[in-house]
Specification:
By secondary structure, the chain is mostly helical. The chain contains three helices and no strands.
Amino acid sequence: MYIKHVVFSSPSYAFAGLERLSVALWQSVCGVAERVVEANRCRRDYERLEELPDFLLDDIGITRGEIKAAARRNAL
């Protein structure tokens, strides 16, 4: 098997490609982390709203059936 070696015209060209790749990877990791944090916040808000009695839910203007939507609404 013959393996062809890639030769760049300058070392900075190779570094720039690696830098772009690492930036893209970092952005992907940050995006996933943000979605995990947001999902945890929605879950926490949902659980807290579920614990409230109906009269308090009425005070804040939502019904028990709207809790899931209300917990997600703040995510947008």
